[in-house]
Each structure stands twice: as C-alpha cells, then as structure tokens.
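Supplementary Note 3. Input sequence used for the single-chain structure prediction.
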Amino acid sequence: MKIRILLLSIVTMLVFDGCKRPYDEEFGKIQVNIKATMNGNPFVVGEIYTNEMGDRFRTDLFKSYISNFKAIRTDGSEVNIREIYLANFDDLNVITVEVEPGTYSGFRYGIGVPEELNKDNDPSVYANDHPLSALGSEGMFWTWNSGYIFTSFEGKADTLDSENVEPLHPFAYHCGDDFLYIQKDEELLFSVAACQTKKFDLVFEVDKFWYSDEDELDVAIDYLTHTSGNVPLAERFMGFVEKATHIE
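The predicted structure, written as discrete structure tokens, is reproduced below.
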C-alpha cells in the first residue's frame, strides 16, 4: 500500500512539475532578461568607464520602468508579458511568462510609465511589492510632481581628463513625464513550442546614452535634469535611451 502511494505521489509531481497544466494543456514560455551593456560587455553599476567623448564616469544608480510589454503573434494578436516592471540594473532582471505554442512576429514595449498609470496616481493603493507602490517604486515616484521617474541614471564623472582618480562631478538624469514615454515595436520572427522556454535579452546599451549621430552630451554642462527645469536635456537623454535599447 505504501509503495502504491509513493508511486502515485511521484507521478503527481511529474505531471505538475512538467510542461502540462493540471487540465492537461501544453504551453511554452518566453523569458526576457533585461540587462545593460557597455561596448558590448556587461555593464556594472559602480564601475568606472570611459564614454565616446573621452569622459570617465561611474554610475551609482540606474533604474528604468518597462511597461505594456507584449509579444505579437503573426496574426496580430497580443500576448501580455508584463504590464509594468521596474528594472534595477544593480540586480538581475528576469521576466518569464507562459504562452501558447505558436509563431510570433516580434515585441512591443514601453520605456516609462504609461499616461493612465503615471500622474495623479496614489502609490498607496498598490501592494508593497508592486513596482508602482511607495515601497516598490524605490525612489522613482516624485511626491512633489505627482508622477513617476521613467528612467533614473546618475553618478559622477571626471571632467578634467584625469587618470586613476575618482570621478567627482555629479550627473543626474531623472526623466519622467507623459511626453517622454517611449513605445517601441521590434520585428523578430520566432516560434515557441510546447514545453520550450524561448529566451531573449532586452538590452540597454549604456555607451550610447551619451551621443547620437546628431548630438552628444557634454557632462560638464549637460549634467542635471529632473525633467521640469531642464526639459530639453530630459528629451535629449531619453532620445539616446530610445536608440540604445533593443531586443535580441
């Protein structure tokens, strides 16, 4: 009798731990690793790097909201991956979602907090572990501005072209307002089979945060924006972020 009970328990564990739901529906998974790179290598908060303009810098804080993240099927229908997620690049950021097997044509996602969740929103209505709660937003909510910081990138830079010294000149790009919300659509044909986990990277290329073909930041001058007070710099920085972000 004990042997039969043990065998039944093992079979039950295999069914529930495998790729089948209790009601016997097969599914796959999409896993997205949100990460930052510097010149193609893993970006590390706290490390000193040299940007394209030759300025040495150290980032002490880098966070960004990802929202309305969806996988797009080839028939145009959408699969929700995550409504809102706060990526802290001083930590691992992994999102996994179960999906029906099939063929997909790409992804759609936002950088920032969408308008309907941004201003005139009370963080206290969310559970503490929610990314928009007072605790979960981790300093990304402006109480004085009644809205969220979409992307926060701050640290210190060396503006004197020194070597082997700690960067001392502070910079802070705190960007967040409805007009700064970025939506990206990326074509990427792929299939997900039953019992398969399809993995992707959502990459922020930090080396491209400082320049584009048309513009570049001089950190000695362009070093501070809380959006209001220096809207042009916030727009420029988020423009760089938009071009520096992609899925692979």
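The chain has one domain: 23-247. Residues 2-17 form the longest helix (16 residues).
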